[in-house]
UniProtKB/TrEMBL annotation:
<dbReference type="InterPro" id="IPR009100">
    <property type="entry name" value="AcylCoA_DH/oxidase_NM_dom_sf"/>
</dbReference>
<dbReference type="InterPro" id="IPR013786">
    <property type="entry name" value="AcylCoA_DH/ox_N"/>
</dbReference>
<protein>
    <submittedName>
        <fullName>Acyl-CoA dehydrogenase family protein</fullName>
        <ecNumber>1.-.-.-</ecNumber>
    </submittedName>
</protein>
<keyword id="KW-0560">Oxidoreductase</keyword>
<dbReference type="Pfam" id="PF02771">
    <property type="entry name" value="Acyl-CoA_dh_N"/>
</dbReference>
<dbReference type="Pfam" id="PF00441">
    <property type="entry name" value="Acyl-CoA_dh_1"/>
</dbReference>
<feature type="domain" description="Acyl-CoA dehydrogenase/oxidase N-terminal">
    <location>
        <begin position="6"/>
        <end position="118"/>
    </location>
</feature>
<feature type="domain" description="Acyl-CoA dehydrogenase/oxidase C-terminal">
    <location>
        <begin position="260"/>
        <end position="405"/>
    </location>
</feature>
<dbReference type="InterPro" id="IPR037069">
    <property type="entry name" value="AcylCoA_DH/ox_N_sf"/>
</dbReference>
<comment type="similarity">
    <text>Belongs to the acyl-CoA dehydrogenase family.</text>
</comment>
<keyword id="KW-0285">Flavoprotein</keyword>
<dbReference type="GO" id="GO:0016491">
    <property type="term" value="F:oxidoreductase activity"/>
</dbReference>
<dbReference type="InterPro" id="IPR036250">
    <property type="entry name" value="AcylCo_DH-like_C"/>
</dbReference>
<dbReference type="InterPro" id="IPR046373">
    <property type="entry name" value="Acyl-CoA_Oxase/DH_mid-dom_sf"/>
</dbReference>
<dbReference type="InterPro" id="IPR009075">
    <property type="entry name" value="AcylCo_DH/oxidase_C"/>
</dbReference>
<keyword id="KW-0274">FAD</keyword>
């Protein structure tokens, strides 16, 4: 791995940072998050036209820019620095990766170009929380569901799929909460359970906005820059994405690696911005006749945050490199889960989430009373840190999943059955 960035990669980072500095300041972020879409549509189309951001990591044959995970991580780091409200994670990473991995060639050709140029947006709908549905944490960590049934919700509950009575198409019934951008997306990629007990499997389906029986409700979220929705389906017509006879679990795990990389890179950018603004503040804020930043205890704390941010960035860059290498070695294979990225990506995400939590918490404390006010920007980063851990963590479960994939502790031992002894009745 060469840690140095290429001129093309530096251009991606520099251009996006300059554009967001002009059009995505704190006031613009708040206004966009409070709007009906939850993001600035004009800015999103500007990013698509000038940088090709929605299709940055999509193949050129499907209308994308044709770059890889490293460039995606650099772009997400800049979007995280500005807390950019956009469909980047939900549409360009989650849904687009699922379509590219599971869809047929015709479906890719029909769907991906519109997602790549930002003309349409999409969202991935899973009954379980994203961390569990995408295989980022051990199975059963949240819902107690076995592997292969977490995304669709299992044989009861969640979203169920069945063939239409007329034999034409499929019908979906159920609901899912915590769907990123689910209330505003033009296209939903829904993970549903089908097959009953003998052929239980998770299948991805395409549902267009405005389909009969589809209800979407935007929810109040801790992090205003990421909109969440509850999606309800009542015998809603749907089209299978790819082969409905194949289980989509491995493909969702592959999608999860891209999502984890994007969230980790965003967390690194947000953590660095927290650190930068805190360092600036402690140099001008005076206490006891001297700048707060001159106190050794404050310097030590900020030095620890700096080390955490830089090590998290290194972990994210390594994870992006391993993911790019694994993708090149398994081109077009949505089933593969082996490779260094299967452990490097969740570990990078765990480290990045912890660095953001530390940076945001120290920013709030070192800014003093103003940081806990609604008007100050520190609370936005603190909420992002907490919300990301709820959706894609927590760190200790991400590390447990990485250890499980690496077989670090060997197979889980099956507890021995304890014999039950029948008490012998004593005769008087």
């Amino acid at each position: 791995m060469d840690p140095a960035l290429t001129p093309e990669q530096e251009a991606v980072r520099r251009t996006l940072r300059e554009l967001l500095a002009k059009h995505c300041g704190p006031d613009e972020v708040r206004a966009a998050a409070a709007g009906p879409l939850g993001y600035d549509a004009e800015l999103w189309h500007r990013l698509a036209d000038q940088l090709g951001l929605p299709g940055l990591a999509l193949p050129a044959e499907y209308g994308g820019v044709g770059l890889g995970p490293v460039e995606l991580a650099l772009a997400c780091e800049e979007s995280g620095r500005a807390l950019l409200p956009s469909p980047l994670l939900a549409s360009s990473v989650l849904a687009a990766t699922a379509v590219r991995t599971v869809g047929t060639e015709q479906q890719r050709t029909d769907l991906l170009p519109a997602l790549a140029d930002g003309a349409r947006t999409s969202a991935l709908v899973t009954a379980a929380a994203p961390a569990l549905a995408l295989g980022l944490v051990p199975a059963g960590a949240g819902d107690g569901l076995p592997d292969g049934t977490t995304a669709g919700g299992g044989r009861a509950g969640g979203v169920q799929a069945r063939p239409a009575p007329e034999g034409d198409g499929w019908l979906l019934y159920g609901e899912a909460g915590q769907v990123l951008d689910g209330a505003r997306a033009d296209l939903l990629v829904v993970a549903a359970h089908t097959g009953g007990f003998p052929r239980s499997r998770t299948v991805l389906f395409l549902v267009e906005a405005g389909s009969p029986g589809l209800t979407r409700t935007r929810l109040a979220a801790m992090d205003d820059t990421r909109t969440l929705a509850r999606v309800e389906l009542r015998d809603t017509p749907a089209v299978p994405l790819g082969d409905p006879e194949r289980d989509a679990g491995p493909a969702l795990a592959r999608t999860g690696r891209y999502a984890a990389l994007a969230v980790a890179a965003e967390a690194v950018g947000a953590a660095e911005q927290c650190l930068t603004r805190t360092v600036e503040y402690v140099q001008v804020r005076k206490q006891f006749g001297r700048a707060v930043g001159s106190f050794q205890a404050v310097q030590h704390r900020l030095a620890d945050v700096y080390v955490a941010v830089q090590t998290a960035r290194s972990a994210v860059h390594y994870a992006a490199w391993t993911l790019e290498r694994d993708e090149s070695e398994n081109e077009g294979d949505g089933e593969g889960e082996a490779g260094a990225s299967a452990t490097a990506v969740p570990l990078a995400l765990a480290h990045a989430l912890e660095s953001l939590r530390t940076a945001a918490a120290d920013a709030v404390q070192l800014h003093g009373g103003i940081a806990i006010t609604w008007e100050h920007d520190a609370q936005l980063y603190f909420k992002r840190a907490a919300a990301d851990e709820l959706l894609f963590g927590p760190p200790h479960l991400l590390r447990a999943r990485a250890a499980e994939r690496a077989n670090l502790f060997g197979p889980t031992p099956v507890p021995a059955r304890i014999p039950v002894r029948t008490p012998v009745r004593q005769e008087a």
